[in-house]
Design a protein that fits this description.
This protein has about 550 residues and is mainly α. The chain is built from 23 helices and five strands. A five-stranded mixed β-sheet has the order 2-1-3-5-4. About 45% of the residues are buried.
Length: about 550
């Protein structure tokens, strides 16, 4: 496959300019999605049937896990969204370090599908389905149609990777605006209309307001916007207008999202949670501590998605080799920004790598198409084909083990995962236990990270810092929490800082132990937690 270039953006193929906003381009995206007057004829539906099938794959892959118990991060988002619907303000009343859009998606899912564990996953699956469509559209503008199908299909299948996807974490909600921003930007470089750069900036900001690491993708687009007309003779003003338009869209979207917190008197809390605290969070892990974690994360990703990992490296080489101009390569730069986003937190949990998947599938699709449709096939193509078959076998084997024998595989590779899943399931019963013994206006407090207890019990956290992670990074959080507990006196205090998920040294603070001894009675060990109830008359 040969990547043609033009004078606007080297990666964008001039031969496909005629597809934009034509019947063929509408068909590429799906006529009912982009066409203002959708063509619902039989021929149009048949032409788009393969794409529709690909877009349904994420939904089908999510079906088996729709009603699985909430895991820790999901429990945080569900708790905040539940209280948001009851009038609480995120950050001011309930602290978390994620941007606000994820809580909005959870709250929306509860309004539409009811307050159950399936609701946010239904929305996540739908968003990933539309992300598949967006990836197809982006690839269709840059490469032949077969590459678009390969990329969209690879992404759709990748949404079923265990640990990397199959949850309602922030990445699942971030990918659609992230990829849509790239699509709008690509259209802007082709059409030269500033409104597309404004839209790209707004969508990029929407991704950032879903998870902060998307800021690097926005930075990458800003760099490209500044230099997207290399070699052209033009005024300085015309050179910077794409960049200014992109930044204007990002600023407007960010201001719109932040305004409700300003009117609620929670703007300083919003800034602290999303910027100041995250700076503490990033600095807490040293390079020496982060590198082993990176190695484990990359190893897991390489086992689960071996063809994509190798295909990405080869895809970058292929794009650079096929393009002769010394200009920015949109897809390569955007992929590099995604990698920086994954690395910027200093921690490498498997679901973090989902941010890389859109770039990985597009670059891998380029390699596959180049291998099978290139005009200059390499003489050692048989070796490459054999190596590719081995990679596919490794990936299929790793995924099969986790799908067909999850308990046995997790017990051998990651035994703590089993305990966490057991605790997640037991959280439902513990929440029901507490709900049956408290009233709707009562508050509770969990010392630990099983925030889903609040959601299952449908009881308000007694304090702003309703899980213990923050105590590790902000030394002022624990004294504030202890003072708030003395004032609010929650009906139940649950101590879930228990082995084997936590070391015996991670015990409750002495001040909290004194409060429990004075004002609470020990009800016993219930499931995985020590449970304390407020004494009568307190």
């Amino acid at each position: 496959m040969t990547l043609n270039t033009d004078g606007v953006l080297p990666v964008v193929v001039n031969n496909y300019r005629r597809y934009l906003w034509t019947d063929k381009m509408a068909a590429a995206f799906g006529s009912v999605v982009l066409a203002w007057r959708p063509n619902l004829g039989r021929r149009a539906l048949l032409d788009n049937l393969p794409l529709v099938v690909l877009c349904l794959i994420p939904i089908l892959l999510y079906l088996p896990v729709m009603v699985s118990p909430l895991e820790r991060d999901e429990g945080v988002y569900a708790t905040i969204a539940q209280r948001l619907l009851r009038g609480d303000v995120p950050y001011r009343d309930l602290f978390d370090n994620k941007p606000p859009i994820v809580y909005g998606w959870y709250a929306f899912s509860f309004l539409v599908f009811g307050e159950g564990v399936a609701a946010p996953r239904i929305v996540a699956a739908l968003l990933l389905s539309f992300t598949t469509l967006a990836i197809f559209g982006e690839a269709r503008m840059l490469f032949p149609r077969r590459v678009a199908y390969l990329g969209a299909g690879a992404f759709a299948v990748a949404t079923g990777l265990p640990f990397v996807a199959l949850n309602a974490n922030t990445e699942a909600y971030m990918l659609l605006p992230l990829v849509a921003s790239l699509v709008a930007f690509t259209i802007g470089t082709r059409r030269g209309r500033l409104s597309w750069f404004v839209l790209a900036g707004a969508l990029g900001a929407l991704a950032v307001m879903t998870k902060q690491v998307a800021v690097w993708n926005l930075v990458a687009l800003a760099v490209i916007a500044l230099f997207w007309r290399w070699g052209k003779v033009e005024t300085a003003w015309r050179r910077i207008t794409p960049l200014l338009s992109l930044l204007a869209g990002a600023a407007a979207a960010t201001a719109l999202i932040a305004t409700p917190f300003l009117f609620a008197g929670a703007f300083s809390d919003f800034v602290y949670a999303n910027i100041s605290y995250n700076w503490l969070y990033v600095r807490f892990v040293t390079i020496g501590e982060g590198l082993p974690h990176l190695g484990l994360g990359v190893t897991l990703l390489s086992a689960l998605a071996a063809p994509l990992v190798v295909g990405t490296a080869l895809g970058i080489f292929t794009v650079l080799r096929r393009t002769r101009r010394n200009a920015a390569y949109l897809l390569v730069v955007w992929a590099a920004a995604s990698a920086v986003g994954v690395a910027s937190g200093g921690r490498f949990f498997p679901h973090y790598f989902l941010q890389l998947v859109p770039a990985m599938v597009l670059l891998t699709a380029v390699v596959v198409d180049d291998r099978f449709h290139g005009h200059d096939p390499h003489p050692r193509w048989k070796v490459a084909t054999t190596f590719s078959a081995i990679l596919i076998f490794v990936s299929l084997g790793a995924n099969a083990l986790l799908y067909l024998a999850p308990l046995r595989t997790e017990h051998r590779l990651a035994p703590t995962v089993i305990y966490q899943e057991e605790w997640d399931a037991a959280s439902q019963s513990l929440g029901a236990y507490i709900s049956a013994r408290t009233g709707p206006e009562d508050t509770i407090f969990n010392l630990g990270r099983q925030s889903q207890i609040y959601f299952y019990a449908d009881r308000r956290p007694a304090v702003r810092y309703f899980y213990d992670y923050v105590y590790d990074y902000d030394e002022t959080a624990l004294p504030v929490t202890l003072e708030a507990l003395r004032q609010t006196k929650p009906v139940y205090i649950i101590d879930s800082l228990q082995p084997p998920l936590f070391e015996p040294t991670e015990k409750k603070p002495d001040e909290l132990a004194a409060l429990l001894s004075q004002d609470y009675v020990y009800e016993g060990r219930i499931f995985f937690s020590d449970v304390y109830r407020l004494k009568a008359g307190r």
